[in-house]
Design a protein that fits this description.
The complex is a heterodimer of chains A (about 400) and B (about 170).
Chain A: H1 6-13, H2 19-31, H3 33-55, H4 66-77, H5 84-106, H6 109-116, E1 126-127, H7 130-134, H8 143-148, H9 152-164, H10 166-171, H11 173-176, H12 181-191, H13 196-210, H14 223-234, E2 252-255, H15 262-272, E3 287-291, H16 302-305, E4 308-311, H17 313-320, E5 325-327, E6 332-338, E7 345-350, E8 356-361, H18 365-368, E9 371-375, H19 381-395
Parallel strand pairs in A: 1-2, 3-9
Antiparallel strand pairs in A: 2-5, 4-6, 6-7, 7-8, 8-9
Chain B: H1 5-24, H2 27-44, H3 49-71, H4 79-87, H5 92-109, H6 113-123, H7 128-135, H8 142-161
Helix pairs in contact in B: 1-2, 1-3, 2-3, 5-8, 6-8
Classes of the chains: A alpha+beta (about 400), B mainly alpha (about 170).
Chain lengths: ~400, ~170
């Protein structure tokens, strides 16, 4: 027998040789000092490798109650039973999340894109419900906001205020919004904040990031906007062109089941290889839109940090108890479910420019008005205004 | 239900988290994934729980890294920020643990995906049969793969300790 190869030695050390092979190996080892020495070396390598892996063992793992997992499994299997427990644990997590929506909605990217955006056609985003169709609102109420923003710098500053301090975020829309629909719409969005205390959490996270690692609490209040401004400005160097703008005028907020343009949906289905849910569901009581930065300046929100598990439409519908809300004219790239106990569902769609649009929702989100739309792209001012309008209108 | 999932959970959860952690390098995500794996296991109730768990966990971890890559185009993964916030190391021990852990991670990244997977599955307690079934490798080649993977890991780790390779 020739010398033993390393694979055989490791198989032996792992106790995975079959009986005949092991006899053969032992016979060889008995007569071959070289292979015995190599066996010792491999034994040490094997020991060392697994010792090294132990260094990377995570610490502080606390297994959740098994019953909780079982409840999650059963809540997914069927829409109704066993979900109350999960839901009650969802809410506290959702509140800061919802607040982050509200903070972001008021100004920030919205205002900025107003400046960079181009004019557009007159149709508007509407919540796809009969009521929304019948009562078309005054056009582009947010328009005056655009005029009142004197420069990109001040837009950035506004953004910074939002990121840095909840208090200024809440007051920011008023000075810049003209009286009338646009400002009103913004204000209504702000009022959807579940409670004032919840506003602090995400804002603090954003401030930390904007301040480049400095904790929000450390900086004197006056300094925060400056820090954030610096950061935001750095992210918007002139040479860094914003993504191509996209038009939202043709977009309708709707349930996937209620596509205004069945052809578009069918096309998306074909492209993506799955069926959108067809079941009817009530339109949302409100949708918040957050216009997130296209690249590196996305605020440190809790959504981005969650782990998402890819899901198909029916899994998403199961998690929500109804078909997920999507823009019916946009292709759905996919759905994902948060791999935690929140039951959050994310629908990702693609804007015509190729940028993703994300819709975050959860089981009771429609009733609670806690759906978040995140557009990670620059879009024209009027498109955004319409989107916001749709949101404001749905809100009641 | 043919499988006592509560018992499987008790005996396998930690191992599964450890396994996942060394793939996604985030304790919270590893735990989320482990829980998701168990939720799916309870739903599917497969006959061979252990092998099934690790297969699903592997797939979830793989999806995770893919989606991470995809999303990088559009948003900063706030991982760095999240980690600094979470760490705030109060003890030297914790700092050391993190440094070693980072070294292991870098060392593992020098292995091929397949070698890494085989090594980690063995480390998680799967036998050659199960590893072969999961990876599609021939059972006969598992020993060779492990020999290579272990050697590379040990070598890479030593090199990192000696400062020959910059930490990634």
């Amino acid at each position: 027998m020739s010398h033993l190869d390393e694979g055989t030695l490791h198989t032996f050390l792992d106790g995975e040789l079959d009986a005949a092979e092991e006899v053969e190996l032992r016979e060889h080892l008995a007569t071959c000092a070289e292979c015995r020495a190599r066996l010792d070396v491999e034994r040490e390598t094997r020991r060392r490798a697994h010792e090294i892996l132990r260094y990377a063992d995570p610490v502080g793992i606390v297994p959740p109650d098994f019953d909780e997992l079982r409840a999650r499994a059963s809540s997914r299997a069927g829409p109704a039973p066993g979900t109350s427990r999960t839901r009650s644990s969802v809410r506290p997590l959702i509140l800061p999340w919802a607040a982050s929506i509200v903070l972001a909605v008021g100004v920030g990217w919205f205002a900025q894109t107003l400046l960079t955006g181009s004019g557009g056609a007159g149709s508007r985003v509407a919540i796809d419900s009969e009521q929304a169709r019948e009562s078309e609102p005054a056009p582009l109420a947010a328009g005056p906001t655009l005029e009142e923003e004197p420069s990109a710098a001040s837009t950035t500053a506004t953004d910074a205020r939002v990121a840095a301090a909840p208090a200024s975020a809440r007051s920011a829309p008023e000075p810049q919004a003209a009286p009338g629909g646009g400002g009103d719409s913004g204000a209504r969005s702000l009022r959807t904040a579940p409670d004032a205390a919840a506003l602090g959490a995400p804002a603090e996270g954003a401030a930390t990031m904007a301040g480049r690692g400095r904790a929000g609490g450390e900086a004197p209040p006056d300094e925060q906007p400056t820090l954030a401004l610096e950061s935001a400005a750095a992210a918007q160097e002139p040479e860094r062109a914003l993504p191509e703008t996209v038009a939202l005028e043709a977009i309708t907020v709707a349930d996937a089941s209620k596509a205004a343009d069945a052809e578009d949906t069918a096309r998306a289905d074909r492209v993506l290889g799955f069926q959108a849910p067809r079941e009817m569901a009530a339109p949302p009581s409100s949708v918040a839109a957050r216009i997130a930065a296209p690249a590196a300046t996305v605020p440190a929100d809790s959504l981005a940090r969650r782990y998402w598990v890819g899901a198909d439409a029916s899994e998403a519908a199961n998690a929500l108890g109804s078909p997920p809300l999507v823009f019916s004219r946009l292709p759905v790239i996919g759905y994902a479910i948060a791999a935690d106990t929140t039951g959050l569902v994310r629908a990702t769609q693609q804007l015509p420019g190729g940028e993703p649009l994300e819709i975050y929702q959860w089981r009771d989100a429609r009733a609670a008005g806690e759906i978040e739309v995140v557009v990670r792209a620059a879009v024209p001012a009027d498109s955004l205004a319409r989107l916001r309008e749709a949101i404001g209108r749905g809100e009641r | 239900m043919s499988v006592d999932w509560a018992a499987v959970y008790r005996s396998s959860y930690q191992e599964l988290v450890r396994y996942l952690y060394r793939r996604v390098w985030d304790v919270e995500r590893a735990q989320d994934l482990a829980q998701e794996t168990f939720v799916r296991a309870i739903e599917h109730d497969p006959d061979n729980p252990r092998a099934w768990l690790f297969r699903v966990a592997t797939n979830l971890a793989r999806d995770e890294s893919r989606s991470v890559l995809r999303r990088r185009k559009h948003l900063t993964l706030l991982k760095g920020e999240a980690e600094t916030r979470r760490v705030e190391p109060e003890f030297v021990e914790e700092v050391e643990h993190r440094e070693r852990s980072a070294r292991v991670r870098t060392a593992l990244e020098t292995l091929s995906e397949r070698d890494r997977e085989v090594l980690q599955l063995w480390d998680a307690g799967l036998d050659y049969e199960a590893i072969a079934a999961q990876t599609g490798l021939a059972r006969k080649s598992i020993g060779t793969t492990l020999a290579r993977a272990r050697q590379r890991l040990a070598d890479a780790y030593r090199a990192l300790e000696e400062g020959n390779v910059a930490l990634g």
